[in-house]
């Protein structure tokens, strides 16, 4: 709880203190890809409502766990929930959609890869840029940590899972550099002419170059039309009965036309 104290006033020789009603805090925990847009939404909502929206982005898996154990009002995930994470009392609300952009250094001459080529690069089966039309230089692969929803969605889309003793595990090469967030991965690629990585489309800026996949550039229009297939949902998840009334009102507002205009303005795909 946070309390606003409106200052002391001296009137006719006596001190009068006015204490404003305490703000209610709404806790939102999870995906580092969803966190930036959730922070903007939370700040916007708080301006006209007596609440504080606290957003933390330790990753999608942490967000789903927080929803299950009730340690936060709302969890955020940038991937579909696994079957092991689903439950009758766990509710899922899609608040936006996002593309995953495969990015390289701005000086890399490669402009287009197929999904199969991306998969082989991440499995370590394609190791030199000259195998995909680039320079004769080794490919430096950058990936996200295993708790990342972006990584989970990327592995599903790019067929980067394998079975070992009947258990599905990541097929991404263990030689890949691991980044803890979109920002760190983008920095790795921006600073290495031979690196490749993947980040939220909403995080793409001039520091890196997004590649076309199967001849389709990542864009809001291509995602809406279904032409660009490397995309995933942004979910808010919660445990039935856990969120406060204020948290549920905030979530309802997030899917309103006003909030979805903000979502679209930040480069994500609105749901309406």
Task: Give your account of this protein's structure.
By secondary structure, this protein is α/β, with parallel strands linked by helices. It folds into two domains: 5-97 and 233-265, Periplasmic binding protein-like II (D-Maltodextrin-Binding Protein, domain 2, 3-Layer(aba) Sandwich); 99-231, D-Maltodextrin-Binding Protein, domain 2. The protein has eight helices and 15 strands. The two termini are 34 Å apart.
Distance from first to last alpha carbon: 34 Å
Unreliable stretches = 1-21
Q: Please give the number of β-strands.
A: 15
Strand proportion: 25-35%
Per CATH, the class of the largest domain reads: Alpha Beta
User: Which structural class do you get from the secondary structure elements?
Assistant: alpha/beta
CATH architecture of the largest domain: 3-Layer(aba) Sandwich
Main beta sheet: strand number and arrangement?
Answer: 9 strands, mixed
Rg over alpha carbons? 22 Å
CATH superfamily of the largest domain: Periplasmic binding protein-like II
Q: Output the CATH topology of the largest domain.
A: D-Maltodextrin-Binding Protein, domain 2
Counting structural domains, the number is: 2
Give the count of helical stretches: 8
What characteristic shape results from the CA principal axes? globular
């Amino acid at each position: 709880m946070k309390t606003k104290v409106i200052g002391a006033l001296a009137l006719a020789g006596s001190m009068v203190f006015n204490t404003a009603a305490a703000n209610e805090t709404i806790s939102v925990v999870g995906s580092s890809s969803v966190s930036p847009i959730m922070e903007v939404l939370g700040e916007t909502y708080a301006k006209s409502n007596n609440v504080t929206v606290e957003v933390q982005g330790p990753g999608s898996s942490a967000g789903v766990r927080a929803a299950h154990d009730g340690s936060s009002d709302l969890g955020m995930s940038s991937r579909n929930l696994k079957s092991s994470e689903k439950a009758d009392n766990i509710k899922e609300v899609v608040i936006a959609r996002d593309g995953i952009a495969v990015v390289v250094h701005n000086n890399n001459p490669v402009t287009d890869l197929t999904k199969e080529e991306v998969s082989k690069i991440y499995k370590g089966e394609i190791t030199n840029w000259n195998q995909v039309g680039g320079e004769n230089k080794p490919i430096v692969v950058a990936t996200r940590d295993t708790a990342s929803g972006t990584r989970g969605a990327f592995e599903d889309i790019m067929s980067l899972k394998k079975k070992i003793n009947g258990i599905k595990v990541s097929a991404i090469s263990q030689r890949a550099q691991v980044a803890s967030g979109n920002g760190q991965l983008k920095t790795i690629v921006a600073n290495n002419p031979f690196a490749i990585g993947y980040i939220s489309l909403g995080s793409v800026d001039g520091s890196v170059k997004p590649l076309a996949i199967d001849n389709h550039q990542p864009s809001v229009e291509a995602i809406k039309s279904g032409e660009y297939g490397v995309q995933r949902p942004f979910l808010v998840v919660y445990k039935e009965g856990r969120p406060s009334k204020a948290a549920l009102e905030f979530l309802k507002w997030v899917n309103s036309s006003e909030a979805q205009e903000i979502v679209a303005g930040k480069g994500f795909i609105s749901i309406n």
